[in-house]
Fold each of these.
Amino acid sequence: MNRRVVITGAGVISSIGTGVDDFWHHCLIGKSSVAPIPAHWNRHADFRSRLWSPLPEFNPESLGIAKSERLQLDPVTMLSLAATRLALKHAGFEAMPAEDRVRAFTLIGNDSARSGVFFGTGLGGAFTFLQNHTHHLLRNPRAVLSEYVGKKAPAEDREMLKSVIEHLSHGIRFNPFEVSMVMPNAPAAAIGIKYGLTGPNETFCVACASGTVAVGNAYRAVRDGRVDVAISGGCEFFGDEHGHIFRSFDVAGTLVRDCENPDTANRPFDEKRSGFLFSQGGAAVLVLEEFEHARSREAVIMAELVGFAESFDAHSMMSLAPGGVQIERMLHMALADAKLNPADVDYVNAHGTGTRNNDETEAQVIDRVLGKSVPVNSTKSLLGHTIGASGAFEAIVTALTLRDGKTHINRNLETPAHDLNFVRHVKNFDPEIGLSQSFAFGGHNAAVVMRRYTDRVNST
Amino acid sequence: MNVSVQERVLRVISEVLDQKQNEIRLDVSLRDELQVDSLKQMTLFIALEDEFQRSIPPEEADGLVTVNDVIEFIQRKLKEPSLI
């Protein structure tokens, strides 16, 4: 069974915008949010990178997450719930309070058993894990030391000891819900619970390709008749108290090094690129639907998903295989799945991290398979790297590019490192086929292929 | 009776259990009448920790039967220094 799969809604929480319209507007004006890392992180390490892309202050209650829910959900799950709420609204679904469950909803007119969740994340609830671990490790020593400073410590040592106590900061509690907060499937599970979706509920942990793999598997589930509606996307939250997660990427040498000018530090595909911009995270959600299902409820269709493929490098945990042979194979498989040829591709949303190796290999493969004339951009040039969410953000950008016939610039590209048609200006063009690809630590490669939705497509 | 503590406790219970604050009686049993199971009890006590900035280990909360027990427990906790 090969059914048509369309995208009928999108929702995002990102460093440059909340909700798809705000996000897309800021993409098209080339907005980026870059700031120095929190000063208190510097107590714990001498970082080589000094910049990140922080999320705006996030008010869960304004996005429908009650205080009592917040206490038992990691921020990554709250971001996912908020983006899902926005995506469902964008898709035109109306939610009514569920009769049998507190703080849960039913999508009016939707068959919950024919609806599933397909979600990606890199590290899931790492924030909660670290917060609880610091509490587990430091609470008692800190209390003992605090008592000593207050009662017995010699006066001349007190300032030094107070400084040590300040370093021993920890989460406020060892949360009894830790297991269900940390588990990577928590975001997908929370979405299923919130909207009573009883179809398949799957989580994809493939690092930086998680979002793309999730969207691709959702596409297959709708295409093959397992579900009629799929909530798909990706999420990440890396804002831990001590900069631990930032450090793990920093010591691996992956983060942007040239931090002199925050505005130009993040420069995928440029000669002067020096690593990727670490993002605090975000969530991006797409609503996929079987075509007739979408049409029967008069949904507005953003784009059609027509292909997906994955491959694996089997080479290295942390670097792309030189030459990108498996990426090339993956691209051919994705196009074959879509019954298209390389020459049909009108737009590529690249993985485009800004690391020396990624951009070099990726540019070579795009040149070899798709040629020098296809427009290419990197959404990470605006957002930084949101890891498990990135592929979902980029799938949304691909759908919007096809819908509107324009796309965002490849920010900070001054001297391209490769002779490709990188997007330097926002201008109207006429893309019918778009492709978004992601590569991940471990060696995972994945791409989704989309077709612009028009009345002509409608009649085929 | 410290009314503000009572009101704050009732507000937290009302929010966690999604029940109207003015319908929660002080002598009502958490488990039997408000259907506070072990998961809800955990949620309730971390919400009270947040509200009153006091650490409440699970073993301390285990013997509390009624809403009034919770209010009196919190009043006692507030005499201790904040550990959060």
Amino acid sequence: MSIRGKAYIAGIYEHPRRDIPDRTLSQIHAEVAVGALADAGLTLADVDAYFCDATVPGFGGMSMAEYLGLKLSYIDSTETGGSSYLAHVGHAAAAIAAGKCSVALVTLAGKPRQRGRGGPGGMGGEGPPEGSFEGMWGLFGAPYNYALAARRHMYEFGTTSEQLAEIKVAASIHAQHNPHAFLQNVVTVEEVLASPMISDPLHRLDCCVITDGGGAVVVVSPEIARELDRPERAIKILGHGESVKHTNNGRVDLTYTGARWSGPRAFEEAGVTQADIDYASIYDSFTITVLETIEDLGFCEKGEGGRFVLDGALVAPHGKLPFNTDGGGLCNNHPANRGGMTKILEAVRQLRHEAHPAVQVPDCSIALAHGTGGSLSTRMGSATLILGQGDA
Amino acid sequence: MADEKQLPAYPPNVTVENEEFWKAAADGRFLLKRCDADGCGTVIWYPRSLCPECGSFDTSWFEASGKGTIYTYTIVHKGQGPWAEHVPYVTAYVELEEGPRVMTNIVGVDPADVAVGMAVEVVFQDAGDGAAIYRFRPAIP
């Protein structure tokens, strides 16, 4: 397979100005975006993929996606300097060829002439476009922001702190078997509720650990996989979905995550359903992250997550939905404050039947791994992978 | 809570896209942007030159009511820096009468009495350098 003939450049736009002190960097991105789309006879509403470099204002490509109001099934902020945009076109063509998206927007903007003119320096950035309206309300990182989502979920669906605590308890039951886990002690619901309140309604034990470390994954072609020394340990990628959820022009809804969109995309591509999932790695920066994600991935109805997680539903090997058998971010590891890598790794261990025997799901043949980045309360990137054994 | 000490406030990050908002805030007025494109009329938050609903750059400012209700909130028990001495304090999303949900602090009330759905109104607080930022307090009926 190649990209040859699978994608076309339909619109272009070059900003007409060469000295732009009276625009923010976000505005220039917006002007070239709208200009190129107009050249193609398309609008922002048609865009389902966004590509940008690391100089865009804000958090990866997510702040610009929010500014532009994009609804994305694909995002890529590969940074290779001046060659980035050519790489982006190549990546966009591959994504379109693979059916991941159909209208990809690539933007570049900068204001290097404004450096030292009393305006912001560097790449001409003013900080994130949303930055003038966030960041001054006394929220010091993720727990505070996720507490906003937890409160709203409680208000709408009657979810309780005890139900959230069940998620931490399940993770701790798994972590006791992981000699590398940062926290290896089993905790109770009462202990979670008795831990210090950080940002009401989230307690310290509703939060993931802070750990150094990392992880890596190698992905190969089927041809290479067949030639490996132990080809049976190669895990097949069955499906993938992604999305960006943002504050949606001030209409943010904190009761769901981007998994609402990334999950169905992954299930559809994999050709499997929730009932086929033997094991799930669910992003667990906080207990509320797990609860909302389980609902959004369709393992239960929206609002039912609090009841779903009771009675050991998440506990391996015999729960309804064994999750995070390494102890997850809540107990084991959340390296670099980013838990997505470890979610993939434990799913692969489960599919290889190399998880700890106490938590290995019998006959595990299809697994799901889900990542959440950013914040449940503002803008987030969501990605879902469905993986299977080599013969799946 | 008449003796409540004001939460930390610093001059906002003013850009060419939002300076009208912050000028008005210093005068005690809460502005919003609306899309003026035919058939759109969307109220925009956070303020920007583009309407993220329809993609038009034809947007303009208007003065909002400054009233809304609490959509969600958290009571912060572990603050940092100058905020630490103010715990517990309340950070929230307020749903404005005009539609947008904006992040802010709730002041002038015991955090234990704050609730989702509570009616609130804007109050401007001195942020230094002649600037002011918006916070919300329980609405006076």
